[in-house]
């Protein structure tokens, strides 16, 4: 295949700006899918993705498009649209020469879009701006076009007006892809140099690796090597991605394809890694490889302690197709055996939790999410703190450092005040304030990561009436006065409720947590003291009074079986309670911290 | 309706085990006293025609304002020997809140008339747990009750059901139910006051002098079979519980077609044990542990050894060689404790 007839591109868009629908239209227009094969939002194949309306894992698809008498090969590389997966996005972008920038004509540009756009511009991608949903009554193509022109420095006539829903502008987009996006360059004869930008787990075939070839040629049966992991494989099957996979004997520089080589575990495939030949390896790897590091940590425990082994099996299966999920066994006095898990972000954590429930029928208790702190020990060595229980004794360390992020928020000018207030409350320092248009502002803050891990995004949405958008990137560690806050029930510490919080916030946190627990812990035969403490110092206390009365007044003919059923049901519910010392704690209590407000 | 109840009775005359003659009849649940005496007599006669009866007790639940001397005489003459009068309170304001059509004066008159008519046993119903500022009205109700010296008292805590007037007010925020603690205090006052007045608490909500226990109600708690007739009535044949459709119109329509409006629920062994635990624990006789072992092959003392020891330590139960019985402290938590013993 002639490299000049290949175009590799991705789509940059905010959630809900219609990326998936537009992608569907491109596939239909190029006859890549027939009507019969068409499912709504074809590229999002996991149920969960479809329901959330976002693409969690990226995929790729190849289209054939005839243009001025020649057939072009268009590789569309799909990108996830959430900040938790920004590294995957960066690798998808690195696999392309161009990008469609899709902006909702009624919403305008969002923070996430801008950061991905900058990423694309940084990789020298040709940007094709598209205003989507122009058919909607609320569309303001003029205003949003101004915003886009300002941002990427294009001309008004470069912006394509489209509607995925109505099928408007689809041909214009395809023509622009061919005309404007440069063909890939590379040496078909050189040593093989390809980049993994995604992987898909197939329970029958093992891990399918998606890659982009920059130089050289790969043949079926070649002996290949993943440079960063150092592992070698046989290229059992290679091919291109249509709606179904199409095996090929050979793929050359410039193209995008898949590889099957009997890899059983997703961990062996690292996005960003370089594929080369064992015999004639390339001299340089593809730049930008990183080991993805989890940002958020939380304990996951089975609701029923006897389900631990089953949970382990489920987690292992999940990890087969989600290499970014990391975990190790953990024991809690209150919750028994479970796992300390690392996630890319809060969305990733929710997804894992939901997948455990849906795909494996496991109900789990998730403990207070935290981030990775580090303690500077007295011997000047760092110790990693992933969980409150990892926190060393105060006399053993000099100080604690916590991860900071640079946060970008785009909001309507009306909400700038409340947004700044919120970020200050979250220990943020404002760094920059830019008016994108007369009523849209980009605000930049330095903030502790731990502060945005919790409810931050929900709060931001609430105070900005749903309009503010958020992006963040890690900028390093800073020294902070963090303390471990413990919760005790009748003097017994409940390890699963401990949290690492900033000293200035510990009192407020402790007070609210105690109040919340008072609502959730049922009255028992004795009084229960709920206390929050830093070290040995009690900073908050609530009391659950002893149960005094639990008896139905009337118990004659019909009351009997009604009451029996009610009590049997309550007793069943009790089995799901956890015993802390002599106190029975319902599982909701362990989630209480997630809903503090 | 009376006709249909009689028809149901005939259709179900074989429901109860034959060996045991019928000893008690209870007209109750709702206010059967609004029926003319003749209609009550019709049902009563029908019972005696269709069953082997050796009646020891026949009770009628009555509203104070339904009881005229003529009606009382007629009821007495047909063989009703026990009245359970729904006094609820001697405070007119509270009675209006409860949506009762009678007054305190009518209550006093009703008791007087019933006595004159010569009923063997008179029971008074009282409700506590109304959210007053203090307990004085409840104490007055109890003092008034004791001065009337009925041989039986049933006293229930106010429960607010959704859909009732109080339930609707509560939902709209016009009415705040009393706290559990407040209600618990009133229950304790009830126990102390009636104990001083020589009433024996033979079940959580029932008190009697001179062994004037309600035979009929006691049988519910001892697991004796019973047949319930009429819309919404519950029955128990020893192994199965069942109930009639409660919609009056549907009940009548089905019986007109000679169909029984009855739904059966079979209890497995565990459910039978749990019901026995729940009901027997409420009584002065307690859980008969030998009965459990004989009847179900389940040894409570062995199976629940630790829980019983714990309850004993907290002064919630007394354990004798025959039975497990609640202390006064335990009575307030009867349901909680029963559930702990459930299997």
Automatic annotation (TrEMBL), chain A:
Keyword presence, Membrane: yes
Any GO CC annotation of this UniProt entry: plasma membrane
Locations listed in the record: Cell membrane
Cell cycle in keyword set: no
Substrates-to-products reaction catalysed: GTP + H2O = GDP + phosphate + H(+)
Superkingdom, natural source: Bacteria
Molecular function in Gene Ontology: GTP binding; GTPase activity; ribosome binding; translation elongation factor activity
Top enzyme class: hydrolase
Keywords noted in UniProt: Cell membrane, GTP-binding, Hydrolase, Membrane, Nucleotide-binding, Protein biosynthesis
GO BP terms, alphabetized: positive regulation of translation
SUPFAM superfamilies in the record: EF-G C-terminal domain-like, P-loop containing nucleoside triphosphate hydrolases, Translation proteins
Topology relative to the membrane: Peripheral membrane protein
Residues annotated as domain Tr-type G: 4-185
EC number assigned by the record: 3.6.5.n1
Predominant location: membrane
Binding positions (GTP): 16-21, 132-135
Family: Belongs to the TRAFAC class translation factor GTPase superfamily. Classic translation factor GTPase family. LepA subfamily. Belongs to the GTP-binding elongation factor family. LepA subfamily.
Function per UniProt: Required for accurate and efficient protein synthesis under certain stress conditions. May act as a fidelity factor of the translation reaction, by catalyzing a one-codon backward translocation of tRNAs on improperly translocated ribosomes. Back-translocation proceeds from a post-translocation (POST) complex to a pre-translocation (PRE) complex, thus giving elongation factor G a second chance to translocate the tRNAs correctly. Binds to ribosomes in a GTP-dependent manner.
PANTHER family the record matches: TRANSLATION FACTOR GUF1 HOMOLOG, CHLOROPLASTIC (PTHR43512:SF4), TRANSLATION FACTOR GUF1-RELATED (PTHR43512)
Protein name: Elongation factor 4
Protein species of origin: Cyclobacterium lianum
TrEMBL record, chain B:
UniProt name for this protein: Heme chaperone HemW
Domain of life: Bacteria
Keywords, sorted A to Z: 4Fe-4S, Chaperone, Cytoplasm, Heme, Iron, Iron-sulfur, Metal-binding, S-adenosyl-L-methionine
PROSITE patterns reported in the protein's UniProt record: RADICAL_SAM
A GO CC term attached to the entry: cytoplasm
Leader sequence segment: none
PANTHER family noted in UniProt: COPROPORPHYRINIGEN III OXIDASE, RADICAL S-ADENOSYL METHIONINE DOMAIN-CONTAINING PROTEIN 1, MITOCHONDRIAL
Cellular compartment(s): Cytoplasm
A GO biological-process term: porphyrin-containing compound biosynthetic process
Task performed by this protein: Probably acts as a heme chaperone, transferring heme to an unknown acceptor. Binds one molecule of heme per monomer, possibly covalently. Binds 1 [4Fe-4S] cluster. The cluster is coordinated with 3 cysteines and an exchangeable S-adenosyl-L-methionine.
Organism, scientific name: Cyclobacterium lianum
Family as reported in the entry's similarity comment: Belongs to the anaerobic coproporphyrinogen-III oxidase family. HemW subfamily.
Listed Gene3D superfamilies: 3.30.750.200
CDD domains: Radical_SAM
Taxonomic lineage from the root: Bacteria, Pseudomonadati, Bacteroidota, Cytophagia, Cytophagales
Pfam families referenced in this protein's UniProt entry, alphabetically: HemN_C, Radical_SAM
GO MF: 4 iron, 4 sulfur cluster binding; coproporphyrinogen oxidase activity; metal ion binding
Domain Radical SAM core: 1-200
């Amino acid at each position: 295949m002639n490299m000049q007839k290949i175009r590799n591109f991705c789509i940059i868009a905010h959630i809900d700006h219609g990326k998936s629908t537009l992608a569907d239209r491109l596939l239909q227009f190029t006859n890549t899918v027939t009507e019969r094969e068409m499912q709504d939002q074809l590229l999002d194949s996991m149920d969960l993705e479809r329901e959330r309306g976002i693409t969690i894992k990226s995929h790729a698809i190849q289209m054939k498009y005839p243009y001025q008498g020649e057939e072009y090969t268009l590789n569309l590389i799909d990108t996830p649209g959430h900040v938790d997966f920004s590294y995957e996005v960066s690798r998808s972008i690195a696999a392309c020469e161009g990008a469609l920038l899709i902006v909702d004509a009624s919403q305008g540009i969002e923070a996430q879009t801008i950061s991905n756009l900058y990423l694309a511009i940084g990789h020298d991608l040709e940007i094709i701006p598209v205003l989507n949903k122009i058919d909607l009554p609320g569309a303001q193509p003029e205003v949003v076009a101004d915003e886009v022109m300002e941002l990427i420095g294009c001309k008004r006539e470069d912006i394509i007006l489209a509607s995925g829903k109505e099928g408007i502008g689809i041909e214009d987009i395809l023509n622009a892809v061919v005309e404007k996006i440069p063909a890939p360059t590379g040496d078909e004869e050189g040593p093989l140099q390809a980049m993994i930008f995604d992987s898909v787990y197939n329970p029958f075939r093992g891990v399918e690796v998606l890659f982009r070839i920059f130089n050289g040629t790969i043949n079926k049966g070649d002996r290949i090597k993943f440079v960063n992991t150092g592992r070698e494989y046989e290229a059992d099957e290679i091919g291109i991605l249509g709606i179904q996979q199409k095996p090929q004997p050979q793929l050359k520089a410039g193209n995008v394809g898949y590889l099957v080589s009997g890899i059983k575990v997703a961990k062996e495939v690292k996005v960003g890694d370089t594929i080369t030949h064992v015999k004639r390896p390339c001299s340089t790897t593809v730049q930008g490889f990183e080991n993805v590091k989890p940002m958020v940590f939380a304990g996951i425990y089975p609701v029923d302690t006897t389900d631990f082994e089953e949970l382990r099996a489920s987690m292992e299966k999940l990890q087969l197709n989600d290499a970014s999920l990391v975990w190790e066994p953990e024991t809690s006095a209150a919750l028994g055996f479970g796992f300390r898990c690392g996630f890319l972000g809060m969305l990733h954590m929710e997804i894992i939790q939901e997948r455990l429930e849906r795909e494996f029928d496991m109900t789990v208790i998730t403990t207070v999410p935290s981030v990775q702190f580090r303690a500077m020990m007295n011997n000047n060595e760092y110790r990693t703190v992933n969980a409150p229980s990892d926190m060393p004794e105060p006399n053993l360390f000099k100080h604690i450092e916590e991860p900071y992020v640079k946060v970008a928020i785009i909001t309507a000018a009306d909400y700038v005040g409340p947004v700044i207030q919120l970020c200050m409350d979250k220990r943020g320092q404002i760094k920059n304030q830019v008016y994108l248009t007369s009523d849209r502002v980009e605000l930049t803050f330095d903030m502790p990561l731990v502060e945005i891990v919790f409810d931050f995004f929900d709060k931001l949405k609430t105070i900005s009436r749903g309009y503010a958008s958020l992006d963040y990137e890690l900028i390093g560690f800073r020294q902070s006065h963090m303390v471990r806050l413990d919760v005790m029930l009748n003097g017994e510490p409940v390890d699963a409720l401990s949290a690492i919080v900033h000293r200035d916030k510990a009192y407020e946190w402790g007070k609210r947590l105690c109040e919340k627990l008072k609502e959730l812990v049922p009255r028992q035969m004795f009084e229960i003291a709920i206390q929050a403490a830093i070290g040995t110092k009690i900073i908050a206390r609530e009391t659950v009074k002893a149960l005094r009365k639990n008896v139905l007044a009337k118990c004659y003919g019909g009351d009997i079986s009604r009451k029996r059923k009610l009590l049997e049901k309550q007793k069943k519910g009790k089995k799901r309670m956890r015993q802390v010392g002599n106190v029975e704690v319902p599982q909701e209590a362990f989630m209480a911290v997630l809903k503090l407000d | 309706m009376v006709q249909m109840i009689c028809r149901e009775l005939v259709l179900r005359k074989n429901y109860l085990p034959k060996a045991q003659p019928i000893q008690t009849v209870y007209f109750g649940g709702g206010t059967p006293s609004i029926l003319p005496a003749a209609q009550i007599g019709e049902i009563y006669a029908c019972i005696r025609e269709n069953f082997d009866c050796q009646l020891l007790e026949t009770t009628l639940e009555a509203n104070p304002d339904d009881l005229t001397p003529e009606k009382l005489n007629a009821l007495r003459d047909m063989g009703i020997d026990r009245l359970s009068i729904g006094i609820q309170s001697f405070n007119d304001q509270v009675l209006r809140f409860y949506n009762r059509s009678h007054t305190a004066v009518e209550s006093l008159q009703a008791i007087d008339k019933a006595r004159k008519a010569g009923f063997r046993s008179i029971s008074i119903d009282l409700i506590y747990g109304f959210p007053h500022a203090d307990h004085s009205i409840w104490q007055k109700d109890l003092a008034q009750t004791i001065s009337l010296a009925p041989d039986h008292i049933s006293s229930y805590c106010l429960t607010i059901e959704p859909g009732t007037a109080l339930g609707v007010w509560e939902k709209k925020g016009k009415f705040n139910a009393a706290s559990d603690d407040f209600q618990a205090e009133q229950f304790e006052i009830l126990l102390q006051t009636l104990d001083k007045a020589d009433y024996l608490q033979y079940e959580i909500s029932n008190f009697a002098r001179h062994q004037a226990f309600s035979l009929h109600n006691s049988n519910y708690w001892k697991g004796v079979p019973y047949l319930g007739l009429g819309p919404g009535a519950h029955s128990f044949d020893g192994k199965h519980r069942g109930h009639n459709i409660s919609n009056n119109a549907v009940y009548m329509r089905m019986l007109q077609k000679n169909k029984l409006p009855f739904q059966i629920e079979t209890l497995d062994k565990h459910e039978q044990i749990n019901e026995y635990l729940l009901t027997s624990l409420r009584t002065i006789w307690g859980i008969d542990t030998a009965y459990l072992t004989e009847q179900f092959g389940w040894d409570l003392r062995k199976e629940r050894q630790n829980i019983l020891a714990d309850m004993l330590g907290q002064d919630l139960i007394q354990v004798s060689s025959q039975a497990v019985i609640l202390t006064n402290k335990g009575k307030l938590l009867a349901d909680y404790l029963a559930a702990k013993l459930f299997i």
